[in-house]
Specification:
The complex is a heterodimer of chains A (439) and B (256). Chain A has 439 residues and is α/β, with parallel strands linked by helices. In chain A, 19% of the residues lie in helices and 38% in strands. In chain A, helix 2 runs antiparallel to helix 5 (139-146), helix 6 (380-387) packs across helix 7 and helix 7 (393-409) packs antiparallel against helix 8. Chain B has a single domain, classed as P-loop containing nucleotide triphosphate hydrolases (Rossmann fold). The chains are: A alpha/beta (439), B alpha/beta (256).
């Protein structure tokens, strides 16, 4: 290491020496190492991490990916969505798998594939690792130090992707806890249109950590529909950093579905780069047992005339813990902003916990920002209504939980994803029935 | 069919007594109307029979077909043929009317020894029922009560009653909030569903409903008790004179 560590070294700092020495991305690695060594690992005295139990990070004994003895992935076809049979990128533990991927093409001007194959692409040169912007953060530089493969999606001016692109991240079983660093860059040029289904799936219930970093650039009049499904292993840690920049007249709609992981920390950011934009940062969290799901989001309005929307719905059961911090910035010159934020939490158990904090910082005077946060239980009157129609109490609760979660799912444009998520919601509520019966 | 025996009911955990010794007997084939001023306990009466968990029976009993149903959950009571049309039907976004009704129909059918219906059979079965409440087919694919007008919600309750064919229907202010045309549709529905083998208990504020549905008995509830029972002429007298003359009566009874 060229520079001494300026902060208390954590396991991430210690693993930095296993950064690949050969291959591409040497300048990214160089700057990432500097950033990593200048950033402390989160601790509970930092405001942004105050509510998050960091013990799961300390309890695992991580080995570098290169030293993990990984078991092969089997039966993965079940996760392919039919709409993307010509447009699927598969990564196993962060490594690109050409034989499972399908790059049949989606029409003129639509490029997608493995990042190293596009090393000299102008969009990669211009944007890779340049969009990502998380202050004093150890996770992004760790990803920058370690990633080799990654998803690259590029749409030329006016290009419309004929089908959704599925980016499937699979995590296999291993004897040791490893750290995966999936990477993604999406550049949508003027007037282009694309739908991306990003899926993270733990194939067994083993321990691992994944640190996905995703950079998105929506240029003028571009439309991006981005679905992110987190179905990691129940013993996994998931720390994601998706950031999107939206230019004039563009639209970026992001939907994050948080189902798995022991601890998930998701920090989506959308940054407005010009006037007349429209963006969404919706989320659905379904957690149980000892799961922790933590969302710290930022919607940064820097110019006038923006419409932004954030509906973050959470269902908590067991001893699970949900944390939500939704920052909405409206800068001084950003007038005529119409921003909506709502965080609704459904607590199904006595031991569940919810922390919610809408955080609006508004420096302009002609804006419309509405926000709300509620924490509640199922309405007994609603349960009674369904029971009086013959449903058992459990079935009634299942139906009402589904109805609660549905609002965030119904915007899914891709039919099979819509169906998949409905199944996931039902699986969640059914699983709860089992716990209750045996408890 | 239904017999309330000196029924005392409190709000669960609050110790506020709402029903203070109600006696009522409803036989097969009968229509009973229960009237009374606001807060007299009319709605509570219908909810407690359907098994609402918010209320607790402190003494007395509810017999249905000769057996006490106090220990039964609301769904078990529904399975036995008890139906409550809600004063404020609940919205369930994301669950279509058809889904809810088929689920209900089949669970109730199973426990009443009827055949369960598959989606196609069920489709046939509910066609006539839709006509009864003059509702469009597209109504079936809408989420239960979500975005419905007040009138549509009430019609939906009667539609559910038509589909489930209960033995005992408790209709809690089904007429309130209806315009005159909707009131006619709802009344026609109730009349054609009612027969020799079932019973209907109407909870209402207004005599006007009884212009369309002719009750065999009219009861007046005041202060958690039935203070007067009679035939339909009692409803007309109430319309004419209000409840004042009965409130005195109630006090006299209370002291007695």
């Amino acid at each position: 290491m060229s520079k001494p560590t300026q902060v208390e070294p954590s396991f991430l700092h210690k693993l930095a020496k296993h950064s690949p020495k050969e291959g591409k991305w040497s300048s990214i690695r160089e700057s990432s190492l500097k950033d990593l060594n200048a950033s402390p690992f989160p601790h509970s005295k930092i405001e942004e991490w105050r509510f998050t139990d960091l013990k799961p990070f300390r309890k695992m004994d991580f080995v570098p990916m290169s030293e993990a003895s990984l078991l092969p992935a089997t039966d993965i076809e079940q996760y392919f969505i039919p709409e993307s049979d010509r447009s699927r990128l598969v990564f196993i533990n962060g490594k690109f798998e050409e034989k499972y991927s399908s790059i049949g093409g989606l029409g003129k001007g639509v490029t997608f594939g493995n990042l190293p194959d596009y090393e000299n692409h102008s969009a990669v040169e211009e944007y890779l690792n340049k969009l990502v912007d998380y202050d004093k953060d150890v996770f992004v530089p760790y990803n920058g130090l370690m990633f080799e493969d990654g998803a690259f999606i590029h749409l030329e001016k006016g290009a419309k992707a004929e089908a959704p692109i599925q980016v499937l991240n699979l995590y296999t079983d291993s004897k040791q806890a490893y750290i995966a660093t999936p990477r993604m860059l999406v550049v949508s040029e003027e007037e282009s249109d694309v739908t991306i289904i990003e899926d993270h799936i733990g194939l067994t219930d083993n321990e691992y950590m994944t640190i996905p970093v995703c950079e998105v650039k929506a240029k003028q009049k571009a439309h991006i529909h981005h679905v992110r499904i987190q179905r990691d292993s129940i013993n996994a840690l998931h720390v994601s950093r998706p950031i999107a920049y939206v230019e004039k007249n563009s639209e970026y709609h992001s939907y994050t579905i948080n189902l798995g992981a022991k601890l998930a920390r998701n920090e989506p950011k959308v940054i407005q780069e010009d006037e007349e934009v429209d963006f969404t940062l919706d989320g659905l969290v379904l957690i149980d047992g000892e799961q922790i799901a933590d969302t710290h989001s930022t919607m940064d309005h820097r110019f006038s005339h923006a419409e932004s929307h954030q509906l973050h719905k959470v269902v908590v059961n067991g001893k699970a813990h949900s944390i939500f911090n939704g920052k909405i910035f409206v800068r001084r010159d950003a007038q005529k902003i119409d921003s909506f934020q709502e965080n609704r939490n459904l607590l199904l158990s006595l031991d569940g916990k919810v922390n919610t904090k809408p955080q609006l910082e508004i420096f302009a005077d002609d804006v419309l920002c509405s926000h709300g946060a509620t924490i509640g239980q199922l309405d007994p009157e609603e349960v009674f209504y369904l029971q009086s129609r013959g449903m058992t109490e459990q079935k009634a609760k299942e139906v009402l939980t589904y109805a609660f979660a549905l609002e965030t799912i119904e915007n899914m444009k891709v039919e099979s994803v819509h169906k998949l998520l409905i199944d996931e919601v039902y699986r969640y509520t059914k699983a709860n029935n089992v716990t209750k019966v045996t408890a | 069919m239904l017999e309330l025996k000196d029924l005392h009911v409190e709000v669960e955990g609050e110790g506020i007594e709402i029903l203070k010794g109600v006696n009522l007997k409803v036989n097969k084939g009968e229509i009973h109307a229960i009237m009374g001023p606001n807060g007299s306990g009319k709605s509570t009466l219908s909810k407690i029979v359907a098994g609402h968990p918010e209320y607790e029976v402190t003494s007395g009993d509810i017999l249905y077909e000769g057996e006490s149903i106090l220990e039964l959950d609301p769904d078990e009571r529904a399975h036995k043929g008890i139906f409550l049309a809600f004063q404020y039907p609940v919205e369930v976004p994301g669950v279509t009317n058809t889904t809810l009704l088929r689920e209900s129909y089949n669970t109730i059918a199973a426990s009443r020894g009827r055949e369960e219906l598959d989606p196609l059979e069920f489709d046939d079965y509910i066609k006539d029922k839709l006509e009864l409440v003059e509702m469009n087919r597209d109504f079936l694919e809408r989420s239960v009560n979500a975005g419905f007008s007040g009138g549509e919600k009430k019609r939906n309750e009667i539609f559910q009653m038509a589909v489930l064919e209960p033995k005992l229907s408790l209709l809690d202010e089904t007429d309130s909030g209806l315009d005159i045309d909707a009131l006619k549709v709802v009344s026609k529905g109730i009349n054609s569903l009612h027969g020799e083998d079932d019973a209907v208990v109407l909870i209402t504020h207004y005599q006007r409903l009884l212009n369309y549905i002719e009750p065999d008995f009219v009861h007046v509830m005041i202060g958690g008790r039935i203070v007067k029972s009679g035939d339909k002429s009692l409803a007309l007298k109430l319309e004419d004179q209000g409840y004042d003359w009965l409130e005195t009566h109630a006090n006299v009874n209370g002291e007695a």
